[in-house]
Amino acid sequence: MTKPSLATTLGSLALRTPLIAASGTIGSVVEFAAVTDLTAYGCATAKSVSAVPWPGRAAPRVAPTEAGMLNAIGIQNPGIDAWLAEIGPRLGGLGVGIIGSAVGYTIEEYVTVAVAMASADIVAIEVNLSCPNLEGKGMFALDPIATAAVIGAVRKAVTVPVGAKLSPNAIDVGEIAVAAAESGADWVTVANTVWGAAIDIERRAPRLSAGIGGYSGVAIKPIAMRCVLEVRQADPTIPILGLGGVQTGEDAIEFIMAGAHAVGIGTAHFGSPKIGRRVLTQMERWCERHEVSDVRDLIGVAA
Ligand SMILES: Cc1cc2nc3c(=O)[nH]c(=O)nc-3n(C[C@H](O)[C@H](O)[C@H](O)COP(=O)(O)O)c2cc1C
Questions:
Q1: What is the DSSP letter of 132?
Q2: How far apart are alpha carbons 90 and 158 in whole angstroms?
Q3: Cα 284 to ligand 1 centroid, rounded to whole Å
Q4: Whose Cα sits closest to atom 7 in ligand 1?
Q5: Is 165 in the pocket of ligand 1 (CB under 6 A)?
Q6: Which of 19, 20, 25 to mutate to test the pocket of ligand 1 (most atoms within 8 A of CB)?
Q7: Is 75 a pocket residue for ligand 1 (Cβ < 6 Å)?
Q8: Predicted confidence band at 132 (pLDDT cuts at 50, 70, 90)?
Q9: Which atom of ligand 1 is nearest to the CA of 24?
Q10: Which residue, judged by its Cα, is nearest atom 22 of ligand 1?
Q11: Whose Cα sits closest to atom 10 in ligand 1?
Q12: Cα→Cα distances 108→102, 119, 150, 152, 157, Å
C-alpha cells in the first residue's frame, strides 16, 4: 500500500498533517522551534495575545495533578504591539504555518488584536473565547450571543481564516458552535481547558493562587470527545479542531472518528516536546494497518 494521505482541511485552511500544536503549550512558537520538529504539524498556534499587556496571575499558576495539570496563568502576554514588534518578524521560516490567537475582554479588543495580528506572517487567527466578557456575564464562550458578536466582528475585520476556540464548560457546546459558524467562523476548536481545582492539604489552601483554574491533559479526553460529538450532532458541516488529552496517534484517530477534521496537542508537549512527530507516525501506521489511504475518510465515521 502507498503511504496514507494525512493531509486535511479546517474550512478554507489547508493542512499538510491533521496535527495542530495548541495555544499556550508551545510558547510563542519561536522558542519551541528549537526543541521540536515543527514539520510534524499542519499548523502551530501561538500563545493568546491581548490588546494591551496582561501581567498574568500570581504564583502558583500551574499545578500537576494525578492525571493532567491545572493552570491559571491568566494569559500573561506582552500585548499586541510588543508581540508584533518582537515575535511577528520571527514567525516566517519556522517550517510551519502559524495560527495567531486573539483574546480580549471586549469585542473592540478582539478586533484590535485580530486586525493587527493579520499584518504578521500568520495563516489564520484563532479567537480564544474563554475570557470573561466585561460587557456581559461570564466567559464569551458560555454564551451564543456573545460568541456570535465577537466572531462576527472579527470575521468582518480580517480576511484570513478565523477559528472560534470554545469552552467545554458551556452547557450546550453545540449551540455555541452553531452561533460561531453562522457568524463566520471557518472552524471551531473544541476545546479549551475544563474548570478544575486542587487543594494543598499541608498549606490548607488551593494549589493555584486563583483557586480555580483550567484542567487539561489525558483526563479531559473523554470530555473533549463528548464536545466534538455534540458539535457534530448540532451541525455536521462545521469543521472541527478537536483537542484535549491527546497523547498518541490512536487518540488523534479517535477524535477524527468523532468528527474532528484536525487534532490539537497541548499539555503533552510539556512532557515531550517532540510528541508531534511520534503521534503522526502512529497515525500513519494505524492507517496502514487498517488500509485507510486517506485520513479524511475517517472524519465522523463514529459520530
Ligand atoms: C499552561 C497552559 C496554557 C494555555 N494557554 C492557552 C492560551 O493562551 N490560549 C488558548 O486558547 N488556550 C490555552 N491553553 C489551552 C490549550 O490550548 C488546550 O486547549 C487545552 O490545554 C486542552 O488540550 P490538552 O489537554 O491537550 O492540553 C493553555 C493550556 C495550558 C495547559
A1: B
A2: 21
A3: 25
A4: 24
A5: yes
A6: 25
A7: yes
A8: confident
A9: 5
A10: 244
A11: 23
A12: 12, 17, 9, 12, 11
Q: What is the CATH number of the domain that holds 145?
A: 3.20.20.70
Q: Please work out whether the CB of residue 168 comes within 6 Å of at least one atom of ligand 1.
A: no
* Cα–Cα distance, 33 to 39 (Å, whole number): 10
pLDDT digits (tens, 9 = 90+) for 238-247: 999 999 999 9
Q: Is the CB of 196 under 6 A from ligand 1?
A: no
pLDDT digits (tens, 9 = 90+) for 190-202: 999 999 999 999 9
DSSP 8-state class, residue 78: -
Greatest Cα pair distance, the chain, in angstroms, is 59
Residue nearest to atom 14 of ligand 1 (CA): 24
Q: What domain count does the chain have?
A: 1
Which range of residues forms the domain containing residue 283?
8-298
pLDDT at residue 133 in the model: 79
Task: Confirm whether 18 is domain-assigned.
Answer: yes
Among candidate residues 250, 188, 218, 251, the one with its CA nearest the CA of residue 13: 188
Residue pLDDT, tens place only, 162-183: 999 999 999 999 999 999 999 9
Distance CA 241, CA 99 (A): 13
What is the model's pTM? 0.98
Does 81 map to a domain?
yes
CA 10/CA 301 separation, integer angstroms? 17
Half-sphere exposure of 201 (CA within 13 A, CB side): 0
Can you say how many angstroms the Cα of residue 187 is from the centroid of all Cα atoms in its chain? 11
Ligand 1 near 71 CB (within 6 A): yes
Distance 292 CA to ligand 1 centre (A): 31
* 131 noted as active-site residue: yes
2 lies in some domain: no
